[in-house]
Specification:
heterodimer; A: about 475 residues; B: about 325 residues; mainly alpha; 13 helices; about 0% strand; globular
Chain lengths: ~475, ~325
């Protein structure tokens, strides 16, 4: 647990120091410091993962040494240690991209990215509904400030995002208040033992779910996401799509898999699963029709989150432990792939001087590395074997195909796959149009392009450790 | 209906009226005045519900500072166009939605008796037959270092929440600073950014400011044994600073000053330092040694008060030349 706390506090401390140093630290040094911070946190998270793997169970810690129910409880489960590692890795990668590639970021990016890292770590570790609310608020405010980094054109999406995010927080808080009033406890583990499916609990859970769905941009509450993610600076878009929307999903999963009574979860499950299916198709269709590259990638986030929601809904309906694994494999595979898509899209935009998808004509020749990264990561989103996306989809499909009454769900997954393939191949097809090449404005930035490729290769590499991942996540991930 | 219920009904009705007025007032200034009045009524309701801490915070932040913020924002907006006869396109559908929701809610309450029981049945809020949280707080209070349960919860039992809340405040400021990128184009002289204040206002401000500082100090000290504490004291100090700044008696607070930045992050930094020190040398993350608990809480609260005061006043009165790095 000590390693987890170290991994959590290093970024927070570094954020405060960066804020204090202000202009005394040059922008480059601030960047180096933030990257080193994430690197240290990554090392701590690795040791923490080894700890959990050795203990083979969740580790609980009552903060302040007070008794259960009075103290805030932190919980280090195999899943949260994996997510700690994932968040730290993404921060290192995107930090290097933001610091050393041609995309310039302002000084406050580093402070904000450190706070983002710290608040995500706090979120993965928390097992207390009110504490989760505060981490959620931190996450939302950081994300809004990061969108605003892009300057005047981003103010409107940022302010829309802020207002929706606050409304969503208040919804969640209302639910927390109802739960506390009914059961007199905020601790996830304790609540799981005593919840009943009465009206108060039902209203509380539904209100919280609505708030979290709005925060995570799950269909039909996703309309704010494309504008906010597409207008942010490239590095920020990658962080937002790869990490920030996963926070609310974690809380949603915690609520329905642990806090909610089983019969209530079984009632609501199909609704979420169907919403996930619609998200897959509707988000995919919007991505297919979008004229701008970054908007296309942002809509693909909406679509891909549909898989996560489907896995959650089916987990609630069937109460199958396998679905936990499917859900989190999706989240990690999507995070890595989406980082690549946004970084590659940003690089191609700058090099080719166009935001339009149609401007990518001949990109296979002019920006080959970035385009290759885009296609490789897209392959994982589609779910081509042996990528991480395929791994997750396989775990999800297995129980669907095993009995004929579940086949309609499999049809939904198939439809989602087809739509994903359509919007990825649309981009790839245009980039092969070498007859009417769109000449690049500047020479491609080598480092940026290769950095974009790295997570794409990692998501394909997930298949190599697939067996270990599945065992690790199912061996006490809950 | 008993006579005791009358003030509650009056306050509740008043609250709804104020909210309605603030939303649908014909001019901007009417709406802002009604919003401030709304904040005052909310504060009264908290006081009536037996939560003086919340009442203080609501009056200082919800009514006072937010009111100033709204006025400042209105000053920078273009003159308002007439809104008479403006159609409210969603009004009908949202009213229908509201009625439907209320009807569904009422139907639920009528058919499900657990909702009615929840408020009365105290055994339901027991942790698996164990003590309730208020009982646990009372039992643990002697070891917490303070004698007022709310402060004990905020700074000892759930100190981690409070630490993260301090970060939330810092982030709000960082977010606002993003709206003023780069260095200012036309640095103004060290004079008041507002028009010259009335003489009456000036003399009142001179009289009120020391009183507010005194009151803030009292609230901070009082927090150990009764309603009060860092957030309330910080908000009061901030309101004093805002008043002085608006009347031009205080020079601009500049983000480029190291001392100011140190004050802003002091609370969170000290809190994190205590947490790390307790992890490294003590019994664990945020475990205070019992004999030091009282002193530690006071020190943290003092630092937090200063940080909150400066952050809130920067949020309200900070202008582009103050906040740009």
């Amino acid at each position: 647990m000590t390693y987890a706390l170290v991994s959590l506090s290093i970024p927070l401390l570094s954020a405060l120091v960066l804020m204090l140093a202000g202009a005394r630290l040059s922008k480059r040094n601030a960047g180096i410091m933030a990257i080193l911070t994430s690197l240290l946190s990554l090392v701590a998270a690795w040791f923490c993962l080894l700890d959990v793997a050795a203990a083979n169970q969740s580790i609980l810690l009552n903060l302040g040494g007070w008794e259960n129910g009075l103290a805030i409880r932190l919980r280090l489960s195999p899943l949260s240690s994996l997510l700690l590692l994932f968040a730290a890795f993404m921060h290192v990668l995107i930090g290097i991209y933001a610091g050393f590639s041609r995309q310039s970021v302002s000084r406050d990016f580093w402070t904000l990215s450190c706070v983002l890292h710290g608040s995500l770590a706090a979120l993965w570790l928390s097992a207390d509904l009110f504490n989760l609310y505060i981490t959620l608020e931190l996450l939302g405010l950081t994300a809004v400030a990061m969108v605003a980094l892009a300057g005047k054109k981003a103010y409107k999406p940022a302010s829309n995002y802020l207002i929706l995010s606050l409304v969503a927080s208040l919804f969640y808080l209302l639910g927390v208040a109802l739960v506390y009033g009914r059961y007199g406890s905020l601790d996830v583990v304790l609540l799981g033992l005593q919840t009943q499916s009465d009206t108060t609990t039902r209203i509380a859970l539904l209100v919280m779910t609505a708030g979290l769905m709005l925060k995570a941009a799950l269909w039909p509450l996703h309309l704010w996401l494309p504008a906010a993610h597409a207008n942010a600076p490239t590095a920020v878009s990658a962080l937002l799509s790869g990490l920030v929307v996963k926070g609310p999903i974690f809380i949603l999963w915690l609520l329905w898999s642990e806090v909610a009574p089983v019969d209530l979860a079984q009632q609501i499950g199909p609704v979420l699963a169907v919403a996930g299916m619609i998200a897959l198709v509707a988000g995919g269709l919007s991505a297919m029709r979008s004229p701008y590259l970054k908007t296309l990638v942002a809509y693909s986030t909406v679509a891909q989150l549909g898989y996560a929601m489907m896995a959650l809904g089916l987990l609630m309906t069937w109460q199958l432990p396998q679905m936990h694994v499917a859900l989190w494999l999706f989240v990690i595979a999507h995070g890595l792939a989406k980082a690549t898509l946004f970084l590659a899209a940003g690089e191609m935009q700058t090099t080719l001087g166009t935001k339009r998808v149609s401007g990518l004509r001949g990109a296979t020749q002019t920006v080959p590395v970035a385009m290759f990264a885009f296609a490789v990561a897209g392959g994982s989103l589609i779910g081509l074997p042996p990528s991480g996306g395929f791994l997750a989809k396989w775990v999800l499909l297995e129980p669907m195909l095993s009995s004929p009454q579940n086949w309609p769900w499999a049809f939904g997954v198939l439809l989602g796959t087809l739509v994903s393939a359509a919007y990825i191949f649309r981009v790839v097809a245009i980039s092969f149009d070498r007859a009417r090449i769109n000449p690049p404005d500047v020479r491609p930035d080598r480092l940026g392009h290769w950095l974009a490729l790295l997570p794409a290769l990692m998501v394909w590499g997930m298949a190599l450790i697939g067996e270990w991942l599945i065992e690790f996540l199912s061996g006490g991930g809950v | 209906m008993t006579l005791e219920l009358m003030p509650d009904i009056v306050l509740g009705t008043l609250l709804l009226l104020m909210a309605w007025g603030a939303l649908y007032a014909p001019t901007r200034y009417d709406a802002m005045a009604l919003f401030v009045a709304f904040g005052v009524v909310v504060a009264l309701i908290w006081a009536r519900l037996g939560a003086p801490d919340l009442a203080l915070a609501e009056a200082a932040i919800g009514a006072g500072l937010t009111g100033v913020l709204l006025m400042q924002a209105a000053r920078q907006l273009p003159a308002e166009v007439s809104v008479t006869g403006k159609r409210m396109p969603w009004f009908g559908s949202s009213l229908l939605f509201l009625v439907l929701t209320c009807a569904m809610f009422a139907a639920h309450i009528l058919t499900d008796s657990s909702f009615k029981q929840a408020g009365i049945d105290t055994s339901a809020t027991r942790l698996l037959g164990g003590p309730t949280v208020p009982e646990m707080v009372t039992a643990a209070l002697p070891n917490s270092g303070v004698s007022y349960p709310v402060t004990a919860v905020l700074l000892n039992f759930r100190a981690w929440d409070t630490m993260l809340e301090l970060l939330v405040l810092l982030l709000a400021l960082t977010g606002v600073r993003q709206l003023y990128p780069g260095t200012p184009q036309h640095p103004r002289a060290n004079t008041a950014s507002s028009p010259q204040a009335w003489p009456v206002l000036l003399s009142w401000a001179r009289f009120l400011a020391p009183l507010l500082v005194l009151l803030g100090g009292f609230l901070l000290w009082r927090g150990a044994s009764g309603p009060g504490g860092a957030f309330q004291a910080g908000a009061l100090l901030a309101s004093a600073a805002v008043m002085l700044r608006l009347t031009g008696l205080l020079p601009p607070l500049r983000w480029s000053s190291f001392l100011l930045r140190l004050t802003v992050i002091l609370g969170a930094l000290l809190f994190l330092g205590v947490a790390l020190a307790s992890l490294a040398f003590g019994d664990g993350w945020l475990v205070y040694p019992t004999q030091w608990a009282g002193a530690l809480i006071i020190v943290i609260e003092l630092a937090a008060t200063l940080s909150i005061a400066v952050t809130l006043s920067l949020l309200v009165i900070g202008e582009s030349e103050d906040l740009a790095s």
